[in-house]
Amino acid sequence: KAGVTQTPRYLIKTRGQQVTLSCSPISGHRSVSWYQQTPGQGLQFLFEYFSETQRNKGNFPGRFSGRQFSNSRSEMNVSTLELGDSALYLCASNPGQGEAFFGQGTRLTVV
Amino acid sequence: AQSVAQPEDQVNVAEGNPLTVKCTYSVSGNPYLFWYVQYPNRGLQFLLKYITGDNLVKGSYGFEAEFNKSQTSFHLKKPSALVSDSALYFCAVRDRFRAAGNKLTFGGGTRVLVKP
Can you tell me the distance from the alpha carbon of B74 to that of A74, in angstroms, rounded to the nearest whole number? Predict the structure, then answer.
Protein backbone atom coordinates (compact mmCIF):
# COMPACT_ATOMS: atom_id res chain seq x y z
CA LYS A 1 0.00 0.00 0.00
CA ALA A 2 1.59 3.26 -1.10
CA GLY A 3 2.06 5.94 1.51
CA VAL A 4 1.34 9.64 1.43
CA THR A 5 3.26 11.43 -1.31
CA GLN A 6 4.15 15.09 -1.05
CA THR A 7 5.81 17.02 -3.82
CA PRO A 8 8.14 18.73 -4.07
CA ARG A 9 10.30 17.82 -1.08
CA TYR A 10 12.18 21.12 -1.10
CA LEU A 11 11.39 24.56 -2.41
CA ILE A 12 13.14 27.90 -2.33
CA LYS A 13 11.02 30.93 -3.16
CA THR A 14 11.43 34.68 -3.02
CA ARG A 15 9.29 36.99 -0.90
CA GLY A 16 6.15 38.04 -2.73
CA GLN A 17 6.00 34.95 -4.90
CA GLN A 18 3.37 32.26 -4.61
CA VAL A 19 3.81 28.52 -4.19
CA THR A 20 1.72 25.39 -4.68
CA LEU A 21 2.35 22.19 -2.78
CA SER A 22 0.85 18.84 -3.66
CA CYS A 23 -0.27 15.85 -1.61
CA SER A 24 -1.48 12.46 -2.79
CA PRO A 25 -3.18 10.58 0.06
CA ILE A 26 -3.36 6.87 0.60
CA SER A 27 -5.70 5.19 -1.83
CA GLY A 28 -9.23 5.12 -0.46
CA HIS A 29 -8.72 7.97 2.00
CA ARG A 30 -11.07 10.84 1.26
CA SER A 31 -9.78 13.29 3.85
CA VAL A 32 -6.55 15.27 3.68
CA SER A 33 -5.25 17.67 6.32
CA TRP A 34 -2.40 20.15 6.10
CA TYR A 35 -0.11 21.30 8.89
CA GLN A 36 2.65 23.86 9.17
CA GLN A 37 5.66 23.05 11.33
CA THR A 38 8.04 25.78 12.48
CA PRO A 39 10.57 25.88 15.33
CA GLY A 40 8.73 28.74 16.99
CA GLN A 41 5.08 27.76 16.60
CA GLY A 42 5.37 23.99 16.42
CA LEU A 43 2.80 22.00 14.48
CA GLN A 44 -0.26 24.01 13.52
CA PHE A 45 -3.36 22.88 11.66
CA LEU A 46 -3.99 24.70 8.38
CA PHE A 47 -7.08 23.05 6.95
CA GLU A 48 -8.81 19.78 6.14
CA TYR A 49 -10.50 18.70 2.94
CA PHE A 50 -13.02 15.91 2.68
CA SER A 51 -14.61 14.89 -0.59
CA GLU A 52 -13.44 18.10 -2.28
CA THR A 53 -14.91 20.34 0.45
CA GLN A 54 -13.05 22.24 3.12
CA ARG A 55 -14.26 20.84 6.40
CA ASN A 56 -12.10 22.70 8.88
CA LYS A 57 -9.79 25.66 8.81
CA GLY A 58 -7.08 26.77 11.21
CA ASN A 59 -6.12 30.26 12.19
CA PHE A 60 -4.08 31.31 9.17
CA PRO A 61 -4.44 34.32 6.89
CA GLY A 62 -6.29 34.13 3.62
CA ARG A 63 -2.98 33.87 1.76
CA PHE A 64 -3.11 30.19 2.64
CA SER A 65 -5.62 28.25 0.60
CA GLY A 66 -6.19 24.74 -0.56
CA ARG A 67 -8.30 22.50 -2.67
CA GLN A 68 -9.00 18.85 -3.22
CA PHE A 69 -9.65 17.04 -6.46
CA SER A 70 -12.06 14.23 -7.23
CA ASN A 71 -9.23 11.68 -6.87
CA SER A 72 -8.62 13.02 -3.31
CA ARG A 73 -5.28 14.60 -4.23
CA SER A 74 -4.91 17.94 -2.53
CA GLU A 75 -2.96 21.10 -3.17
CA MET A 76 -2.24 24.01 -0.91
CA ASN A 77 -1.28 27.43 -2.15
CA VAL A 78 0.45 30.26 -0.38
CA SER A 79 0.35 33.62 -2.10
CA THR A 80 2.49 36.70 -1.47
CA LEU A 81 5.08 34.70 0.43
CA GLU A 82 6.62 36.15 3.57
CA LEU A 83 9.84 35.14 5.30
CA GLY A 84 7.75 33.74 8.15
CA ASP A 85 6.14 31.24 5.82
CA SER A 86 9.39 29.28 5.79
CA ALA A 87 8.42 25.96 7.32
CA LEU A 88 7.94 22.25 6.86
CA TYR A 89 4.46 21.68 5.43
CA LEU A 90 3.01 18.30 6.28
CA CYS A 91 0.09 16.57 4.67
CA ALA A 92 -1.92 13.94 6.52
CA SER A 93 -4.10 11.27 4.97
CA ASN A 94 -7.06 10.46 7.20
CA PRO A 95 -8.87 7.11 7.05
CA GLY A 96 -11.89 8.39 8.95
CA GLN A 97 -11.30 6.60 12.19
CA GLY A 98 -8.01 6.17 13.92
CA GLU A 99 -4.64 7.63 13.22
CA ALA A 100 -3.59 10.02 10.48
CA PHE A 101 -0.78 9.02 8.11
CA PHE A 102 1.72 11.73 7.30
CA GLY A 103 3.80 12.42 4.26
CA GLN A 104 7.47 13.35 4.49
CA GLY A 105 6.68 17.00 4.07
CA THR A 106 7.69 19.86 1.83
CA ARG A 107 10.43 22.11 3.17
CA LEU A 108 9.69 25.65 2.00
CA THR A 109 12.36 28.32 2.35
CA VAL A 110 11.42 31.91 1.59
CA VAL A 111 14.34 34.24 0.91
CA ALA B 1 -10.53 25.09 22.83
CA GLN B 2 -8.26 22.09 22.85
CA SER B 3 -4.71 22.25 24.09
CA VAL B 4 -1.87 19.83 24.65
CA ALA B 5 1.11 20.38 26.91
CA GLN B 6 4.41 18.57 26.81
CA PRO B 7 6.19 20.11 29.79
CA GLU B 8 9.70 18.94 28.90
CA ASP B 9 11.48 20.32 25.86
CA GLN B 10 14.10 17.60 26.14
CA VAL B 11 14.49 14.31 27.95
CA ASN B 12 17.91 12.70 28.37
CA VAL B 13 18.17 9.05 29.26
CA ALA B 14 20.87 6.39 29.22
CA GLU B 15 20.44 3.44 26.90
CA GLY B 16 18.70 0.58 28.68
CA ASN B 17 16.97 2.85 31.17
CA PRO B 18 13.23 3.55 31.22
CA LEU B 19 11.99 6.41 29.10
CA THR B 20 8.99 8.60 29.92
CA VAL B 21 7.68 11.50 27.85
CA LYS B 22 4.91 13.47 29.52
CA CYS B 23 1.72 14.79 27.97
CA THR B 24 -1.32 16.48 29.46
CA TYR B 25 -4.31 17.76 27.57
CA SER B 26 -7.30 20.02 27.93
CA VAL B 27 -10.35 19.26 25.85
CA SER B 28 -14.08 19.01 26.35
CA GLY B 29 -15.38 15.47 26.43
CA ASN B 30 -13.33 12.37 25.75
CA PRO B 31 -10.74 12.91 23.05
CA TYR B 32 -8.82 10.57 20.84
CA LEU B 33 -5.15 10.65 21.89
CA PHE B 34 -2.08 9.92 19.80
CA TRP B 35 1.69 9.80 19.95
CA TYR B 36 3.84 10.44 16.92
CA VAL B 37 7.61 10.44 16.44
CA GLN B 38 9.62 12.52 14.00
CA TYR B 39 13.14 11.87 12.78
CA PRO B 40 15.21 14.66 11.18
CA ASN B 41 13.78 15.96 7.90
CA ARG B 42 10.98 13.42 7.97
CA GLY B 43 7.25 13.41 8.48
CA LEU B 44 5.49 12.09 11.54
CA GLN B 45 5.36 8.38 12.25
CA PHE B 46 2.47 6.99 14.26
CA LEU B 47 3.38 5.22 17.50
CA LEU B 48 0.12 4.53 19.30
CA LYS B 49 -3.38 5.77 20.04
CA TYR B 50 -6.07 5.73 22.68
CA ILE B 51 -9.59 5.51 21.36
CA THR B 52 -11.47 3.61 24.04
CA GLY B 53 -11.06 0.60 26.30
CA ASP B 54 -7.97 -0.27 28.32
CA ASN B 55 -6.15 2.70 29.72
CA LEU B 56 -2.79 1.10 28.94
CA VAL B 57 -2.12 1.20 25.23
CA LYS B 58 0.71 -0.68 23.54
CA GLY B 59 2.19 0.58 20.32
CA SER B 60 5.07 0.28 17.91
CA TYR B 61 8.74 -0.30 18.80
CA GLY B 62 8.00 -1.31 22.40
CA PHE B 63 6.30 1.96 23.35
CA GLU B 64 3.23 2.16 25.53
CA ALA B 65 1.14 4.93 27.02
CA GLU B 66 -1.28 5.20 29.89
CA PHE B 67 -4.46 7.20 29.59
CA ASN B 68 -5.40 8.84 32.91
CA LYS B 69 -8.72 10.60 32.66
CA SER B 70 -8.66 12.16 36.12
CA GLN B 71 -5.24 13.70 35.51
CA THR B 72 -5.94 14.34 31.82
CA SER B 73 -2.60 12.79 30.97
CA PHE B 74 -1.30 10.43 28.33
CA HIS B 75 2.36 9.79 29.13
CA LEU B 76 4.49 7.80 26.72
CA LYS B 77 6.76 5.13 28.16
CA LYS B 78 9.33 2.60 27.09
CA PRO B 79 10.84 0.18 29.60
CA SER B 80 14.31 0.10 28.01
CA ALA B 81 15.40 2.95 25.73
CA LEU B 82 17.58 2.47 22.66
CA VAL B 83 19.94 4.98 21.06
CA SER B 84 17.74 4.72 17.96
CA ASP B 85 14.81 6.11 19.99
CA SER B 86 16.49 9.52 19.89
CA ALA B 87 13.99 11.71 18.04
CA LEU B 88 11.26 14.34 18.47
CA TYR B 89 8.04 13.07 20.04
CA PHE B 90 4.62 14.68 19.69
CA CYS B 91 1.45 14.10 21.64
CA ALA B 92 -1.80 14.98 19.85
CA VAL B 93 -5.52 15.07 20.55
CA ARG B 94 -8.52 14.90 18.30
CA ASP B 95 -12.06 15.81 19.24
CA ARG B 96 -14.61 12.98 19.04
CA PHE B 97 -17.32 15.28 17.73
CA ARG B 98 -18.05 14.70 14.05
CA ALA B 99 -17.95 18.39 13.27
CA ALA B 100 -14.33 18.56 14.37
CA GLY B 101 -13.32 16.30 11.54
CA ASN B 102 -9.78 15.01 11.66
CA LYS B 103 -8.12 18.10 13.08
CA LEU B 104 -5.22 17.22 15.35
CA THR B 105 -3.96 19.55 18.06
CA PHE B 106 -0.32 18.89 18.88
CA GLY B 107 1.84 19.51 21.89
CA GLY B 108 5.05 21.42 21.43
CA GLY B 109 7.15 18.30 21.13
CA THR B 110 9.77 16.68 23.36
CA ARG B 111 13.22 15.90 22.08
CA VAL B 112 14.50 12.59 23.40
CA LEU B 113 18.22 11.94 23.54
CA VAL B 114 19.31 8.44 24.45
CA LYS B 115 22.98 8.20 25.28
CA PRO B 116 24.95 4.97 24.88
Answer: 32
Query: What amino acid occupies position A50?
Result: F
Contact A92 B102 (CB under 8 A): yes
Read off the pLDDT band of A1 (50, 70, 90). low
Distance separating alpha carbons of residues B90 and B79, to the nearest angstrom: 19
Q: Are A90 and A82 in contact (CB under 8 A)?
A: no
Looking at residue B95, what is its pLDDT?
Answer: 86
How large is the average pLDDT for residues B23-35? 90
The confidence score (pLDDT) of residue A52 equals: 95
Residue B23, amino acid: C
The residue among A103, A86, A36 whose CA lies nearest residue B43 is A103
Nearest chain B Cα to A89, which residue? B43
d(CA A65, CA A23): 14
Q: Write out residues 60-89 of B within 8 Å (CB-CB) of A.
A: none
